[in-house]
Specification:
It is a single chain. By secondary structure, this protein is an alpha/beta fold. The chain has ten helices and twelve strands.
């Protein structure tokens, strides 16, 4: 199966590049709003680049594209920033060694140690997927013992709580923000042409990275509070996909469909 069949300019030469979270953002809003955004992207592939920046792993992302009919991204910053990869025309995901080596060096072989120290920790349930450079848990906020944060810090790694449902252990200094900036620089994309979009706290580092950004209208209150006063972040009123189109128009990044 070929997912990038039509020839298109290199991503650095496009009029704009959308770097978007999935759950609640690109996948958020009404069916009509999502259809409008996805159709607009497909109709403007020669001038719009697409990067998914998500906590999801690449295999899940590609499965979702196949089964849900999403526009295929050209690059993926996945696993909360610990994967930086190119999506080939056949849909295969190729990690970019030049960008991932630093992530691998920071993480080492930490996964088993993290899992052992947090085994049975109140409020944390280890997710079954084995990730390369992170350890992820489902979070029961009511039963969570916050001492897990110090355990992770003492190991020399970072913790991240998002949507009050997930607890991620990440290599120190690695998250969506630093990783999308490194990819943008690597691809020589002019920063002013990028729009980052998100809705939860695991998008915070991306939204305040200095790149143009939008927090969609259904963003979690904790994220909205953290974004107060950040001049590069547009606060959309519309939810999910509609909020992305609202920001593209408000920031004059590209023409969008009438009525969007």
């Amino acid at each position: 199966m070929t997912v990038h069949a039509s020839p298109r300019p290199v991503i650095a030469d496009r009029r704009m590049v959308l770097a978007t979270d999935l759950d609640g953002t690109f996948l958020g809003g009404t069916d009509d709003a999502r259809a409008r955004l996805y159709r607009w992207i497909e109709e403007n592939r020669a001038s719009v680049g697409l990067i998914f920046v998500t906590g999801r792993d690449p295999a899940f992302i590609m499965q979702m594209c196949r089964e849900e009919g999403l526009p295929w991204p050209e690059y993926v910053v996945g696993d909360v920033g610990t994967t930086i990869a190119e999506v080939r025309p056949d849909g295969h995901v190729d990690p970019i060694p030049a960008l991932e080596q630093d992530i691998a060096d920071r993480w080492g072989e930490a996964g088993p140690q993290v899992a052992a120290l947090l085994e049975g920790h109140p409020g944390l349930t280890l997710q079954p997927t084995a990730f390369r450079y992170r350890v992820s848990y489902d979070l029961d906020a009511a039963g969570f013992d916050p001492s897990a944060k110090q355990i992770v810090a003492d190991l020399g790694h970072d913790w991240l709580i998002s949507d009050n449902r997930y607890f991620d252990v990440l290599p120190r200094g690695v998250s969506k923000g630093p990783s999308i900036r490194r990819l943008v620089q690597y691809l020589n994309i002019p920063e002013a042409r990028v729009l980052c979009a998100g809705d939860t706290l695991n998008d915070l580092s991306m939204l305040v990275s200095g790149l143009p950004a939008v927090a969609v209208g259904n963003s979690e209150p904790a994220l909205v509070a953290e974004l107060a006063g950040h001049p590069t972040v547009y606060q959309a009123e519309a939810h999910g996909a509609a909020g992305i189109l609202e920001a593209i128009a408000a920031l004059d990044l590209h023409d969008i469909p009438k009525g969007a």
